[in-house]
Design a protein that fits this description.
Helices cover 27% and strands 28% of the residues. The protein has 216 residues and is α+β, with helices and mostly antiparallel strands. It has a seven-stranded mixed β-sheet with strand order 3-5-6-4-1-2-7, sandwiched between helices. A hairpin with a 5-residue loop joins strand 5 and strand 6. It binds 2-acetamido-2-deoxy-beta-D-glucopyranose (2 copies). The site of one 2-acetamido-2-deoxy-beta-D-glucopyranose (NAG) has 5 residues, from helix 3. One 2-acetamido-2-deoxy-beta-D-glucopyranose (NAG) binds next to helix 3. This is CAP domain-containing protein. InterPro entries: Allrgn_V5/Tpx1_CS (IPR018244), CAP_dom (IPR014044), CAP_sf (IPR035940), CRISP-related (IPR001283). Keywords: Signal.
Amino acid sequence: MRRLFLLALSLLQAAVGGNASPTHDQAKEAQTVTITAAPSIPSTAPQFVSERSFTSAILNSTNFFRAAHNATPVVYNATLARFAAGYLADNRDCAFDHSGGPYGENLAIGCSDAQGCVDAWGNEGREYDFDDPGFDHDTGHFTQLVWKHTTDVGCGRKLCGESGWFLVCEYYPRGNVIGQFDEEVQRAVNAGGRAAALPFRRSVMLLVFVSISLAL
Ligand SMILES: *[C@@H]1O[C@H](CO)[C@@H](O)[C@H](O)[C@H]1NC(C)=O
Ligand SMILES: *[C@@H]1O[C@H](CO)[C@@H](O)[C@H](O)[C@H]1NC(C)=O
């Protein structure tokens, strides 16, 4: 039996200039909602259930996209992972919102496995305009993922009933800093190579985009 459910992705953008005072910082929040068809909620997906599989899937997929865009591999950081897990534990009703924490943050809900979530973020790179670098709601997960100065990642996940798995990844130092996209987000090292050829998951049927902005 196939049924419809939502794969929703969300990212956090920091519009923090190098020397800007925090009171002038602005953050924009963007949500991308992908509607997918899947056989069922993968409540037993090994990449979500097993800590070891989870960590290695996140690292492998994240570093796969980073390598393709000339960024050094990130390491898995327990502080960031604890922050993400703590946020999800406090978020009892699984509200699809950002934590408001100090890190870069990508959210996804409804993926079949951890790699699928990171692939969905990474595949936004196909829409990124390297000739006009900057933040865009359609590509913000990708730009955080491959941001060159980000060195650490840590993620948490939680099963949210019918919505499926809710994945939260924290990035440090945070990416998506306005004015730095040109240096921080690089073209595919091997245009036409493996990363460019990475197929979309068969289940992804439609991308719908919703965004809101807010000033902090
Ligand atoms: C590593 O991640 C990439 C991108 O998500 C994926 O294509 C590849 O199959 C993964 N490799 C392993 C060994 O899981
Ligand atoms: C983990 O990330 C935090 C950022 O919150 C950083 O202060 C810390 O140095 C990192 N830990 C390691 C071992 O790099």
